[in-house]
Specification:
2 copies of one chain form a homodimer. In chain A, β2, α2 and β3 form a beta-alpha-beta unit. Chain A contains 11 helices and 9 strands. In chain A, α7 packs across α10 and α10 packs across α11. By secondary structure, chain A is an alpha/beta fold. Chain A is globular and about 65 Å long. Chains A and B meet through α7, α8, α9, α10 and α11 of A and α7, α8, α9, α10 and α11 of B.
């Protein structure tokens, strides 16, 4: 048992999965869920993600030893400040947001002494939503990135890393900016591309899609509000990622227009090597 | 039993699946496989896709009532001419290629009288290869597009359509050019985008990919030689599809750079509606 009380702010797919994993693995004595929607909190309780719930963030944070923010990335920093102002000394704060630089830099100053925030991002998720789609296994064998800066308390980093390991995750640390540049290429740009591809197909052509299209665009079913917030928070890295992407598209287009089989095969073979290395 | 003898030229994943479906459903008395690799033909026989095999296209075509070409799109027209020059009057020729205009237009003239070619494209497949990955169910409930022109023999169109229906497929007809424009958006551009995305991720970031990246780039594991041929045959429609795609990417980028939440949410929500309509 690493903690007495853990509070999860935002008990959707990720928060619900954290709650289920904490309870199944005995990582804390009590799990409190904080949310805005009583029905969703009831559902989270019914599916074993939390023991108790409250609509009041301050109320939920006051008795916690660890608070995890699983809310949209543009809400996290503000909620962390609200929680930090009421929670007891020594309370550890972390998050599960898909962007890190804006959140971590925002919270480097002004938190009460003895209250530590450490940025986290578990690389697990789904295009599905809500605690009903949560899974206690979601983090098992997956990677969680923990993003300290030189100013982050080392003991807090260690404790947050231990927490994710206790859920079955592997943990790696890197700085928040590197996280955001990497995730722009591995997650945020693929989401944007999937959305752009899905959005281009007119209704009359929808029957002409097969499994390849379904796979390629699956993540476009994700929540538009959550993803708009991610794109806005990571706009600069995304601009660079988009430029690399459109340059690569231009290479393909030029090779097609030149009927240049050799270059087309090279471009496709290089992509295949990357994809094959990841496994199915 | 629709045919006495069916010959499948190219017994890989698609050709092997056709053979298995034909034999399981009793669509023909005998299935002959034509290929270049004796080991692959032996494998096709071992997994129930064909009864007999030959390395000689003319030999395989001579006794067939239906010949189906499941070879790379840039090989099909030439092989059809070779087969047409030796097969018996009344033999029906079709294919399973992912592009149609270049193949169908090439074959509109010069076939021996009484020998009919009808273009087909079953919208089913996989990034995997070879008869070992074939499945007799591959076409069940899927759509096959049959692409006649005003000059195509109507009886041949009917018989080819009946053949695909006998494998469990639904059939729709449309002209070859419409097929290629539609498939550029629903299949060829998604493949190109998946390859471009996969190719951008440097080795140090590969561990930072999760299920979203895997889904979005899965088809990039497809055969580079086959896909280079598809891109070359459909280069004009692909140029248009790429232009629409990069215009959409620009809309996303401009909205990000302007921190325009409303437009980002609209773009993402429109894509989500398309994707949700397809189901998982």
């Amino acid at each position: 048992m690493l903690f007495d009380t853990i509070t999860i702010v935002g008990v959707g797919l990720i928060g619900g999965s954290i709650g289920q994993a904490v309870r199944r693995r005995g990582v804390a004595k009590t799990v409190i869920g904080v949310g805005r929607d009583p029905a969703s909190l009831n559902q989270a309780r019914a599916c074993g993600a939390i023991d108790r719930s409250t609509l009041d963030l301050a109320e939920g944070a006051r008795y916690a030893d660890l608070v995890i923010f699983c809310t949209p990335v543009d809400k996290i920093a503000g909620q962390v400040r609200t929680a930090a102002s009421v929670c007891k000394p020594g309370t550890l704060l972390t998050d599960a947001g898909s962007t890190k630089a804006a959140i971590v830099r925002d919270l480097e100053e002004g938190l009460p002494s003895g209250i530590h925030f450490v940025g986290s991002h578990p690389l697990a998720g789904s295009e599905k939503r809500g605690p009903a789609n949560a899974s206690a296994d979601l983090f098992e064998g997956r990677l969680t990135l923990v993003t300290p800066t030189p100013r982050t308390d080392p003991d807090a980093v260690r404790r947050v890393s231990d927490f994710w390991r206790a859920l079955g995750s592997e943990v790696r640390t890197l700085d928040p900016e590197s996280h955001d540049w990497a995730l722009a290429l591995t997650s945020h740009l693929p989401h944007l591309a999937a959305s752009a591809l899905a959005g281009l197909v007119p209704p009359i052509y929808r029957d002409f899609t097969a499994s390849g299209f379904r796979d390629t665009t699956r993540i476009a079913a994700g929540d538009p509000v959550l993803w708009a917030a991610i794109f806005r928070q990571n706009a600069l890295a995304m601009r660079d990622a988009l430029e690399r992407f459109t340059n690569r598209l231009d290479e393909f287009r030029n090779a097609m227009m030149d009927d240049d089989e050799t270059t087309l095969i090279e471009l496709l073979a290089q992509a295949k090597r990357v994809r094959d290395a990841l496994g199915s």
